[in-house]
Write a structure and sequence with these properties.
With 363 residues, the chain is of the alpha+beta class. It contains 11 helices and 9 strands.
Length: 363
Amino acid sequence: MHVSLLIPAFLQSLGMAAIVSVSYEILLRRQAEGSLRTSLVSLLFACAAVGSMSMPVRLDDGIFFDLRHVFIVLSASYGGIPATLVTFLATSVFRIWHGGAGLGAGLVGGAISASAGLLCFGFCRLPKHSRSRLMVLGLLPSLSLFSVFVLPMEMAILLLKQIGVAFVVGNFLGVVLLLGLLMKRQGQYEREIELRRWAHTDRLTGVANRLKFEADAPHLVRKSLENGRHACLLIIDIDHFKRVNDTFGHTAGDAVLVQVADLLESQLRADDLLARYGGEEFVALLKNTSEVEVRQVSRRICATLAAAEHEIHGERITVTVSIGAYLIENADINLHDAVQHADAALYRAKAMGRNRVEYERAA
């Protein structure tokens, strides 16, 4: 067998890998999760494996090569046990339907690849993007070569001599190409998700940023009013925060900001919106609430923050907050006006000694 016969195998690998990687990216962008995602990934790898079997590369008289073992092995890494079983069953059914003298060897080879992929998925702890992992996965499909020993020994040895090198190289290339493209697509998608997340998240505290707050708060207010309830805007400012930075340094100040954000989150409901508005100032939008509930929550926030201790360079300090609260009772008030009302209440809270809550209501 001439080495040039590997060129069609390489081209087939490239084409099939491109189709699968593009399809996988579409799945990611559709944000399919749970059993739906597993089912779609299983179907993708099964179709790709059967598609490869339907378009084999001829290596010699009566000897053909396809990428079924590549897809069987890698299906475990992307769809777990269900994807491997579906891909293996699909290729087995196709091989049975195709028939031929090598049927038994073909079925055994598929079982070997499925087992190897599942064992690697379950027990291989190599770093995801490491060369060692790529080498292991690249060689796993070639384990299916042992299936030739189902045939008579003389025929098995002859087949190994004829196709051994091409089989190993072709499968290795298939894994390298497919895994490389899948990892590239997935990495690009994850980077985009990360960028979108940080575009709406305060990097220091991990809560929403001002952009996220201004985008989501009007919707939460509208839903609250539609439910026959009120919404409330809280502006929360850490008292004398400049002293913390001046005394202990900005790194210590950042640590206090993170701890304050955590404490604020602990006092709010999961569906309330907390954001860092700038500097040492936070805002919170309480949805589906009432004046009584607002007074309870805001006072509890003040008490919790005043009681919490923050350890800085071996020294324990406490910080307090001042809060301006504005209860939104009708849809005529936009977010900008609500912020102005809450800010006026915050100004009064600071003027009256800090570590307190002041309330503002529409006239």
